[in-house]
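User: I'm new to structure prediction. If I give you an amino acid sequence, what do you actually give back? Let's try with this one:
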Amino acid sequence: MNLRRLLPAVPCLALALLLAVPAALSAQASSAGESKTIAPGDSLNALLGMLEHEVVGAADAMPADKYDFVPPATPGDFKGVRSFGSQVKHLAESNYEFFQGWGIPGAADPKTIEALKSKEDIMRALRDSYAYAHAAVSSITPENAFQAMPGPPKGKATRVSLATFCLAHSMDHYGQLVEYLRMNSIIPPASR
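Assistant: Good question. You get back a string of structure tokens that encode the predicted 3D arrangement of the chain. For your 192 residues, that looks like this:
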């Protein structure tokens, strides 16, 4: 599978998720007939939880002795790609980086994550990073959802767009983890 083909889908997914937020915010309570507002953090946390479950499951499915696995140079162009363990560490690091400056306690230094070697330590860092991401996403309210925040794209980032990008980023790397698992004859837990 050519991972480059997946990359154009990431912006589309991010846009779809971003467009879903206003719909979730204006959800109607069918039994009461009244307008019911769903906090953006609740809606986004539900999606983050689903992705977390898949990513953590995939990361845990790879045996510790395969965390250094890198696809062979052929078929395909895999020169210079991250190992399986490096993919997992990158996800953990990114989950912290997306929410820098939000005032959420418990941030880890990405450099300490990069230095991790054992599967056990990497898995702990991944789980902790998702707990941190959930805390950040929970802080999103209707009042601050579209507040300008530092981050990509410069000058256009909001809390909602950064949370949405975090979701798309997790999904992108989940696809790569699945490919690495399948190259090792491991069926991803979500596909069992």
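You can read the tokens as a compact description of the fold. Here is one thing that stands out. The first helix runs from residue 3 to 6.
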